[in-house]
Amino acid sequence: MALPVQGKAGPATGQGADQDKAPTRRGTELVLLGFAAFIVSVALMLVEANQEQQLTFRIVWYGLAYLALFGVAHAAVRHWAPYADPLILPCVAVLNGLGLVMIYRIDLALAERALQAGREFNNDVPKQIAWTALALVLFLVVLRVVRDHRTLTKYSYMVGAAGLFLLALPAVLPSAIAPPINGAKIWLRVAGLSIQPGEFAKILLLIFFAGFLVSKRDLFMAAGRRVLGVDLPRARDLGPILFAWGVSVGVLVFQKDLGTSLLFFGTILVMLYVATERAVWVVTGLSLFVAGCLIAYQLFGHVQQRVANWLDPLATYDQDGGGFQIAQALFGQGTGGMGGTGLGAGRPDLVPLANSDFIIAAIAEELGFIGLAALLLVYTLLAMRGMRSALAVRDSFGKLLGGGLSFLLIMQVFVVVGGVTKLIPMTGLTSPFLSLGGSSLLANYILVALLLRISDAARRPQTPAPRKPVPQTPIAEAGTVLVERPK
Amino acid sequence: MQLTRAGFLALLWLFVLAALRVVRSDIYAASGLRVAMPGFRKSGQKTRGKAPRQLVVTHGALAGTRISLDGRPIMIGRADDSTLVLDDDYASTRHARLSMRGTDWYVEDLGSTNGTYLDRAKVTAPLRVPLGVPIRIGKTVIELRS
């Protein structure tokens, strides 16, 4: 009773005849994508209405264009990853769309201010739309090229080297190509474009670590069994964690980038824990982390400044690089309150960098706690589906990679939202999919493509090799001893 | 004005609720192995309900050895710290691993020189080990029993 399955992934005929057709849930994805495009169009309409722009029919066209953009991504998923999780893409569509609307909205406000001051102003939103389109193209390429996430293990050392290279690049290059912006030396300026290679390095290093941990996991496990998981791990097993620690400290020292450093170390720590299930790694890592923080606090002025801004933003309100930004963000969130001021009716432009690092503050002001909570839930759903796929996927590399990528995403959200709401010191990361910034967008779309690939592998019904028949060694050539069932 | 504000927030939450509905209708099996769908399960699994409780060596130098299964992975190879240490020229240092996922046991070849065979098939990817099906490693044959 082999039922026809849409797409190329039909069950191999003859084998697995009892296999029922597994639902692909692609229709659900399309419906939710339509819903997402509708939400984005309504948001745009509200902004236009509240900013007293002309309400014309073109908003509908923008909405349809947005739907078409994601329709292409949907078609690609339908074709190349038919069993992928149906929730990941719509969540991304909502986040990215609301980000675009918010950036447009802040553009309007900034343009007005520039007009009053008689300055020239460049809109950011066309750039961001172009980046979104480019990111979707990259998404398609990754989905097309990585047909099976396990192939990545073959290149794990190469990928790791490339990641390290990209991470170190801005720190070594002269300031003409890699200018320090806002104190951090993490940008490359090539042909008028600002690129943040660290964003890509994060994903590459994650792939490397997943591959590395899978091949060396037995060592960790063996050591664990011997010492009952209580004693400290053997010194040579500390290698990877010390390496991760060194890289994050290097990022902190040479690039003055707190956020990436924190993100990188946290993700590696979680992957180590996922790989070994040993709490001792977390304890070791956290103590290393605390030590690193204390040393960094003693050594670097900018770290001290961030902590001072965190403890009391108003005390350093007037200083250069002081608490002005975070205090303004808090004022904005306070103005928003429970239900927000309404899209387009607040003053989010009063916060410096409102469209990139502090876009969460702008959203909290205009959508209020209720709206921000909904957005955070969308992020959580995204990460949860990633984690679920990681749990369900059948190979350990996929598990580690999926878990690591999902955690990377949600940790980034935590660090950003925590910083903006003054739960933790501000570290200067962008919120995934929302913030202005091409590199972050590109990197996050790669991340999502990999997650979709893993979820496809996880949910694909276990037909015996539906796409790629494994070359079976003929039993005679394999020199098999005849095995009898015991009587 | 107030109406549109509340309306948009409602719309956002509607999306979240719709997404959660999808999650509810699409929960993976608790074992994390397979999508749980009504009518989507291989029929004819006779061994269901009988969990393997021990690993028995049926052929080879260690024939007769029994290892009780407690859910921890079983390492097989010539390395001293293996669960089942094989003294066999045809076995590699870290030859294969048996690990439990959900209620099933899977065998995984760890890049051995001479390969691992489940029944007559060479193990190239993790394979589910049914009860009583022989796994051959070098000159040793093991199987799972309840």
From TrEMBL, chain A:
The protein, known as: Cell division protein FtsW
Pfam entry (one): FTSW_RODA_SPOVE
KW Amino-acid biosynthesis (keyword) present: no
Source organism of this protein record: Actinokineospora fastidiosa
Isomerase keyword on record: no
Residue span of region Disordered: 1-23
GO terms of molecular function: lipid-linked peptidoglycan transporter activity
Membrane topology: Multi-pass membrane protein
Location of the protein in the cell: Membrane
Main location: membrane
GO biological process: cell division; regulation of cell shape
Gene Ontology CC terms, in alphabetical order: cell division site; plasma membrane
Transmembrane segments: 30-47, 59-80, 87-106, 129-146, 158-177, 197-214, 235-252, 258-275, 280-300, 358-379, 400-421, 433-452
Keywords of the record: Cell cycle, Cell division, Cell shape, Membrane, Transmembrane, Transmembrane helix
Domain of life: Bacteria
InterPro entries referenced in this protein's UniProt entry, alphabetically: FtsW/RodA
Taxonomic lineage: Bacteria, Bacillati, Actinomycetota, Actinomycetes, Pseudonocardiales
From TrEMBL, chain B:
Entries under Pfam families matching the protein: FHA
Sequence ranges assigned to domain FHA in this UniProt record: 74-123
PROSITE patterns assigned to the protein according to its UniProt record, in alphabetical order: FHA_DOMAIN
SMART domains per UniProt: FHA
Key words of the record: Phosphoprotein
Spans traversing the lipid bilayer: none
Gene3D superfamilies hit by this protein: 2.60.200.20
Domain of life: Bacteria
Name of this protein: Phosphopeptide-binding protein
